[in-house]
Predict the structure.
Amino acid sequence: MYQATEEEEKKLILNKYRQILRHSNITDTAKKAKIRKAFNFAVEAHKGMRRRSGEPYIMHPLEVALIASRDIGLGTKSIISSLLHDVVEDTDYTLKDIELMFGKKVARIIDGLTKISDVFDKTSSLQAENFRKILMTLSDDVRVILIKLADRLHNMRTLQSMPHEKQMKIASETEVLYAPIAHRLGLFGIKSELEDLILKYKQPNAFQSIADKLTESEYQRKKFIARFIQPIKKELKAQGFDFSIAYRNKSISSIWNKMQKKKVDFHEIYDLFAVRIILNSDFKYEKVDCWRTYSSITSIYVPKLDRFRDWVSVPKSNGYEALHTTVMSKEGKWVEVQIRSTRMDEVAEKGYAAHWRYKDSVKGSDHGLDEWMNKIRELLQNPKSDALDFLDEFKLNLYSSEIYAFTPKGEMMSLPKGATVLDFAFSIHSEIGKQTIGAKINSTLCPINQVINSGDQVEILTSNKQKLKDDWLDIAITARARSQIKTALKEAKKQFVSLGKMKIQQYFSDLKRAYDPELVKAFQTNLEIASSNEFYYQVATEKITKKHLSDFIDQTENTSWLSSFNPFLRFGKSKDPNSLAKDIQQQLENKPESMTLNKDLKNIEHQVANCCKPLPGDDVVGFLQGDGKITIHRTTCKKASNLMATYGKNIVKAKWRKEGNLQFLSGLSFTGHDKFGLIREITELLTSQLGINIRSFTLEAHDDIFRGTTMLYVQDSVQLDSIIRQLKKINGIKEVNRL
């Protein structure tokens, strides 16, 4: 709990302000005076206000301004805007007041930040249309997004004072949008810290376990690094380089992701840290110096050839430049070494802000980021794209490994890994994309779904008779291609709406029923078709037939479902007016964030999500669907993260209530070294010793290695974890994982 005297608080506030000035490196007296004026104004405006943690509210804008100046490298106007970013929203001061005191640019930045807060912080869901409008500020003044990232980072640092459901919502929003935006804007440090904080709140046990292990092994790592870099220092000094060497641990989230991906434990991750060599080189010599340094290092240590990365010759699209290599130390451990110049290091750490500073002096350094910004502008300016579609396509532009391919004339195109011929065609021009029938890749004919590899030369083949198809959305992976395809398909399907409406009316006539628009709307909802155009298109093309409508009418009449239909909330109807179903319906209407899961919920239309198969004991969250059904997910589920970020108002806080001997189906996979009698040992442990009911069991062995899966009926996640521990004790079993 926060505790401090008034005098201590004053010292704390003043020290934080001095840190901001120190890290800003601003020497101009007039600029310092403006920052001081903003500081005094913010202190007075937030006087008496406190955060949920109990600390003075002014500490939040001060921390945001410190992140903006120290970690992002923003200037005077951004620091002023950071100090004032909550004034208009939380006090009686207006934008006009800000404009009169600090100028139009500061007022415009604060206006953008206030609009973002209205969407992300004040409402319970991320409204796609508003989010689209917010991103207009990214193309207008990127400082709005950069300051918002600083704001979100400090909010994540202080998230412990929030209630659990708020923590999950904010962490999920950060995972889905803020961390990827930080990645795309080249803010490596902020992106890594955000991802660590996401893990801390969504999987606290995993986070703490890795943090403890890193602390335990820190002394040994420091001694090892000192021995590792000694010969490198000697060699680089002999060659006359001006350099510095630093090292830092990989982020906890990065280590955790690698453990999950490779199915190994902490002690089997060999590259827990990276050594960074930073060269003080003039721009015209920095690439040559990086390569000379690489040559020196590989003359001392043997490199792992498949771990070499050259982002000096071809920088990443977020502006990142460096040489990465992994070498074998004299002590038999692999070590990652990163080589970059001082300029490259600043761009790597401070991202877009540093990139912009060097843009005019370093020819070509802005290609990737500007290209990405142009793609976002193109998406924003498409008047026909649906807001939710836009949100999905925008996310596709964030995290993506890259490949580089070439046109027949040698022009280089940057595309995400996994991009197809169709993506390449749309990246050239939308009309070329729509007419694509195939391509020649390195002079070989290929279909439109052919995946392109880095270095390929691609010639697109077109025909004006080509027609867009629905399955093109399964082929294209880039935001630009998918957006263009969706827009074109919507336009094409609009032509079928009139025919579809005539057909649906004819269906009613054939069934000797009066046409009922409400019934049609319920029918569309039941088919889980969001778009009316899509619904009538499927009717017109007879994908939806008269029999489908007839079956639906029979179903509604038999269950009396239609008479109680509510498009926002629907539960199973009970004859008992005091039934649990009605109680929970009332509870959700009054306080939709609260719900307890137990066996009686079978009377309510809910389902356990197949994507993560939660068990009692797991941390879970419920989502109220458009048709009233509730879907239960584990809080660590990727799909749940997207739902929590995008449809926050539909979150239902859910927890399990302990029930006697209820059984839930769950699955395990296991691998190891094959031996005689292994199946008998496993089944005997599960059935005879642990009393577990096995639904299915499969095991295959090849070259003395076995892989198996089993589906079991268990009571909860605690019992499942116990089963996993017992199975791992069997000699020969190397790994057991929950499916």
